Amino acid sequence: MGEIVSLRRTPDPAAPVERTEPLWRELVGGELRGRRLERGERLVDVAQRAGVSPQYLSEVERGLKDPSSEMLAAVAGALDLTVRELSTRAARGGFSAGSALCLAA
Description:
Elements: H1 24-38, H2 43-50, H3 54-61, H4 69-78, H5 83-91
Helix pairs in contact: 1-5, 2-3, 2-4
GO molecular function: DNA binding
Protein name: XRE family transcriptional regulator
Organism: Nocardioides pocheonensis
């Protein structure tokens, strides 16, 4: 019989890429969602006040869209935040409502 040859697996291009830290848009989106949920507001209500579609706001919250500074200002304003406050919250690590925090000793 023949020899068994182990084939090296090639990475699946459709597989998610593992990152050690989140992207800025993911941190900002998480902060926006956390703030909205803290206030007990619906996506459609915040989107209407911000002048964006609920679908777009949902994608921003999930970190799928990279909004312009004007869009961030509109959404942050609809949540009674300034862009500076939103950026500060995101820069602290994005540990808002719904985020997991793991500590190692």
